[in-house]
Amino acid sequence: MMKLQVPGFVAGAVAAGLKKGGDKDLGMILSEVPACAAGVFTTNQVQAAPVLLDKKKIKSGRCQAIVANSGNANACTGKRGIEDAEAVARAAAIALGIPEELVLVASTGVIGQSLNVSAIEAAMPELARQLNPTGLHDIAQAIMTTDTFPKTVTKQGSIGDKTFTVAAVAKGAGMILPNMATMLCFICTDIAAEPDLLGQSLKDAVAESFNAITVDGETSTNDTVLLLANGLSGQNIEDAGCAEAFQRILNDILFTLALQIVQDGEGATKLVSIHVKGASSKADAKRVAYTVANSPLVKTALFGEDANWGRIMAAVGRAGVPVNPERIDIYFDDVCMVKDGQGCGRQAEEAATKALKTDRFTISIDLMMGTKGSTVHTCDLSPDYVRINANYRS
Amino acid sequence: MMKLQVPGFVAGAVAAGLKKGGDKDLGMILSEVPACAAGVFTTNQVQAAPVLLDKKKIKSGRCQAIVANSGNANACTGKRGIEDAEAVARAAAIALGIPEELVLVASTGVIGQSLNVSAIEAAMPELARQLNPTGLHDIAQAIMTTDTFPKTVTKQGSIGDKTFTVAAVAKGAGMILPNMATMLCFICTDIAAEPDLLGQSLKDAVAESFNAITVDGETSTNDTVLLLANGLSGQNIEDAGCAEAFQRILNDILFTLALQIVQDGEGATKLVSIHVKGASSKADAKRVAYTVANSPLVKTALFGEDANWGRIMAAVGRAGVPVNPERIDIYFDDVCMVKDGQGCGRQAEEAATKALKTDRFTISIDLMMGTKGSTVHTCDLSPDYVRINANYRS
Fold first, then answer.
1. In B176-287, where do the E strands start and end?
2. Domain containing A331: what range?
3. Residue B206 lies inside a defined structural domain of this protein
4. Global ipTM
5. Is the pLDDT of residue B392 over 80?
């Protein structure tokens, strides 16, 4: 893998004491110059203070630094929560010597507890000193909660003799049915772009990545995706061929991170793509795919490596989309398990079980009602999901 | 508890070899005389053969016997499934010497496998011999799948000097978010009633019982509630005061069974009522209540006895109903945990944790948006739910 480095960006992380155990919990990304910025945020009506603050600030289309903490979501914290988020941005601005309005903030962790702002303020000068060109790895670690590995991707593109770079970090693990955005994801690029174009590009990339995954059907209060473009590559998204090249790379990066989030879903042992086709509309296809992808009985069967297609049929039937049960076909990878709504017998089940025993496979469902399709990526439901979440705060 | 006995009804059960381990798996209820009948069935579009058959037969408003098996749902079994369900009804009719059109059937168990009809036919004469006035206990056992206890209730009512009796058996355990009906429930009464009135009475009782519970958000392919009224008490539902007395008892019985189903939800350790009030409409209240009641993160916190109210706020915020997060109040029994969208502090949390450590409590959520309310009853999500369902077919 290439180095996680984008010209003109530095990053870093420290342990500010917000997480138990002394792990890194406060990270920062800084662009040498003010960057063009776009963001996508949670659709949950209960929105954390940093989300509310960023949504206001990002209207300017400009940002130079992002500060993110784990260990505390700063959600359901009222006016004090907003003041705390502002204080964090202010402390970062002072340490970096940049205007406060160019600092965005993000938080993840427990909901409903006040942020330990003085710990963050105390750690800020050291955090500013830590910033370095390869520091994106560190911030990827600092935003982990129940994630088991840091999530990062870098890619380069070129138009003519000029290259540009896009790098991103993300965290996921639980509360994952993003709707317009997921969890925390920060993307840096040295391309130049106006905020509107950048925002559209981000939305398009999110639609087929973070908005096509689920771990547990939950939408977080803190979901935030931020994209900073500092223009230092000399390439502008409006240059000939550049928008397409950039979009391809951005889609690719966000899709890779989205799959990493599902793969690292709390307690997950399998990454399963649910592909619905033959639907009357894309919305119908997505609704059926999400109903199957979030079905506890389907997910426990996946964990048990049991080709229990009856549960898939039952989930399809309750998705709220008109279907004809007697025409539905279901495949596990390329094995036909269900034809015209009925099982294909023991041999098919044995072949499907082989696919089930791998850690990544696709379940295809053909509704035979039309020509539209959609794919959602999910994981299985294991006793570890319950264990992790029964004890999350203790 | 009074004896599970209704004048004019006999019941019984045998082990026909459909369930592993030789447990009772085939049960029957017979009325001495043809009874008036009403039914409520699953809203899942994927409907099992016995559901399809009963929906057709019950249009006559008459039924004399119900045959039910566990171990196999006879769902997703195509034309052969319908023929098999008809064969079961025929075998029962022959053994009982009654017309085939007066026999209803019900199945529960694995989806997608053909029913072993010859085993059922072979067991039928013995089953007919077993029928006796206290046999409802036996059929309650015979329809159990992952249920840990048989579910039965009996009550008597009286108008003037005449009494009437209502008794019911049910099974639940998993795939429980009934929508118009739940799992299997058979109700016998010696009251007299025309099918239309009986059907309305059943619908009303189901609305606030089986349609107000959830274990896992799944709606089964086989949900069936059947009510037989044989009229032998000499009381008619149209007699003065009788409709109200009957409705009160029917509501009470179905509500008791519904709570038993949640209490015996797969892996459940707690029965939790989610009461949403202050909503703009009853539909809004119910949607919020169901979103909280089905949230895996709320349910795992309940299992962990963690008063993690932030997850309740997050679930309310993604329910798809307009809310004002800054006005929401949340109570655990009578402890105020959240006031105006913010936590009430450590003391409140400690008090709430005491409620959480009991096996039955209420979470009340006041949206402060209006005057409508709704209550949904749910259970916690434990590692045992996953274990039971990962290995269900093996």
1. 184-189, 224-229, 271-279
2. 271-390
3. yes
4. 0.76
5. no
